[in-house]
Amino acid sequence: MVGIRASEVSDIIKQKIAGFKTDTDFQEVGIVLQVGDGIARIYGLTEVEANEMIEFENGVKGIVLNLEEDNVGAVLLGPSEGIREGDTVRRLKRIASIMVGEGLLGRVINTIGEPLDGKGPIKGELYEMPLERKAPGVIYRQPVKEPLQTGIKAIDAMIPIGRGQRELIIGDRQTGKTTIALDTIINQREWYERGEPVYCIYVAVGQKNSTVAQIAKVLEQYGAMDYTVIVAASASEPAALQYYAPYAGAAIGEFFRDTGRHALIVYDDLSKQAVAYREVSLLLRRPPGREAYPGDIFYLHSRLLERAAKIIEDDSVARQMNDIPDSIKDMVKGGGSLTALPIVETQAGDVSAYIPTNVISITDGQIYLETDLFNAGVRPAINVGISVSRVGGAAQIKAMKKVAGTLKLDQAQYRELEAFAKFGSDLDAATLAVIEKGRRNVEILKQPKFTPYPVEKQIAIIYAGTHNLLRDVPVEKVKDFEKEYLDYLEQHHRKDVLDVLKQGIINEEVEKILTDVALKIAKMYKKDDNK
Amino acid sequence: MNESKITTRYAKGLFKVAQEQNLLKQIDDDLALVAQTLKLPEFQNFINSPVVPVSQKKQVVYELFKDKINQYTLNFLLLVIENRRESFLDIIIKDFHKLYKQALNITEVELTTAVELDEQLKQEFIQILSKVTKSNVDLNHTVDKEIIGGFIIRIEDKQLDASIASQLSKLKKHITNN
Questions:
Q1: Which of A275, A389, A465, A473 is close enough to A365 for a disulfide, judged by CB 3.0 to 4.6 Å?
Q2: Confidence of residue A10 (pLDDT cuts 50, 70, 90)
Q3: Is the previous residue joined to A380 through a cis bond, with omega within 30 degrees of 0?
Q4: Which of A411, A402, A405, A488 is nearest to A445 (CA)?
């Protein structure tokens, strides 16, 4: 390290002291009556507003949640050690908020915007965004129309997600929920390189710090941190920080959304956030309801997910949007979007538990992951039958829509007939054909983690699957076929096929080439088999 | 929170009587004496005990205060005990004091300094504060060496911290930030 001269240090300190203002004015204060379990009860602060930030004598901040007749209930955003009964508490006169800007990209921060990655302070211009903000009203929105490519074949083909949509990822532990979210984030690199980035926000609630570090490492490794912010409130943080973390993430997403850009936010996961909120609510003595969750647990999630939106293109209308924070008032543009991928963990596949049903009813569809499929080697372990996307179809690119149109139905049919096949009974040729085709499609839809497929390749391989061009390829060779087929297209037909598909166009000419190539390669596998 | 409803109602009732009888000052002083007595652990235990019968509590309170406080105050105490609200007595007294101050336009101000103040300085403080708050100031002065110098003024929920200690901690924050 290059030595620092003492004079330099004292110069800096001198400057700081010169710039120090000693203005004192009347401040509104209260007195701590009681502190513990991450909450404080405060006497005084008669003028304080709900959701306002307060500061304790030792610098720990809090957020006011309960305004009662003779006291104020607040959650602490830091350790309760060092706060004593009788300490004064001061109003900060600003609503709970986070400082947001482009400088956050590539960083890991906590709920109140403090960096956790040891890379120094957040650089660049920052804008204050409130944690709690009303979602845009009806007239400032438009239906989803652009696709958000996840890079996962099964999702982009059968459960398409549009920009501005809210698609729930639900499943038991260890079924690959986080992996789907991370794949989606990694796949956005393509748009980042193209100069039309989809900014990503990954909110980790109640996870292990080691898991968060692992996720940051994976994203770094695949070059995804350039356009990603991680908001982490790990299991060791106070419940209040865990409860507010998704709101902080949403505030960051809204900054991009309202400045006319696209953003994707992953809430991993909302069941842990609900537990954190239950803790805070019970400590504040709010009446418990079903499963001891407070009465407003539905509103907790609905108001959060409602903030995902596709904003109307017209700038002049967008500028009128409700509840725009003053800090970004001059920067508002139309056409932006915030897509949300909330994650909810179920216990033993029970989707009818309280929190899962709530979130399912709020979102625009769900991707349901199953342990059995996962263990059978179908990864991603998506149960196609009960996974849906209620609005994404409108955003799917034309070529994909045409090619994958029958895929979902085919697979449903296959699953039904598959049960019969297990008995080993004699099957007629038509049934056998459906089963054989279904088996190959399942193979096609398998995909290793962190390998997103560009959309044109997805279309090409799904075309081969749905048109039953793989009938001569043995099931266990489908993966090899896929690789060879796509490599061949990449080498020989980049311009005339793949680039055309990428634009969402599929015509007879393209279809013919795809068919020819697929049959040609499939034939080689047939020969292999006969040897 | 029913407690505060109970206490304000009793306080208001007593206050109305005091106003009608023009005994505000006297009853407030009486209650201050009662509040002081309430702080004694023996008396506190006795008054709050659920085992002691009401009649006995009333008798003791009567004997204890009959020559020391006004008839109305005494009646009030007996009523509170009769209604089994004696555990709220201290809060009722506080609420009454609040009403009393409101009626006479008195503002209580807490002043903390690092050194003792002489009478003249105190008077100056009172004068300035009276002007600012537009009311009669009741100054409570405490000495706290920890604040090093300067003063802290506290008017109900508002605080003006012009102490050296807080200035230093602000300066520390300013330098260590970034």
A1: A389
A2: confident
A3: yes
A4: A411
Query: How far A42 CA sits from the closest chain B CA (Å)?
Result: 12
Is the Cβ pair B161, A45 closer than 8 Å? no
Residue of B nearest to A21 (CA): B171
The predicted pLDDT at position B1 comes to: 46
Are the Cβ atoms of B171 and A44 closer than 8 angstroms? no
Enumerate the active-site residues of A.
390
Structural domains of chain B sorted by starting position, each given as residue range(s) with its CATH number in brackets: 3-102 (1.10.520.20), 106-177 (no CATH)
ipTM of the shown complex: 0.72
Instruction: Say whether pTM exceeds 0.90.
Output: no
Whether pLDDT at B174 is above 50: yes
| pLDDT above 90 for A67 | yes
3-state secondary structure A413-466: HHHHHHHHHCCCCCCCHHHHHHHHHHHHHHHHHCCCCCCCCCHHHHHHHHHHHH
Per-residue pLDDT tens digits for A102-132? 999 999 999 999 999 999 999 999 999 999 9
| Across A35-54, average pLDDT | 91
Q: Is the CB of A27 less than 8 angstroms away from the CB of B161?
A: yes
**Integer Cα distance of A123 and A111 in angstroms:** 17
Q: Which residues of B touch A121 (CB under 8 A)?
A: 178
A103 shares contact with chain B (CB less than 8 Å): no
Contact with chain B for residue A430, Cβ under 8 A: no
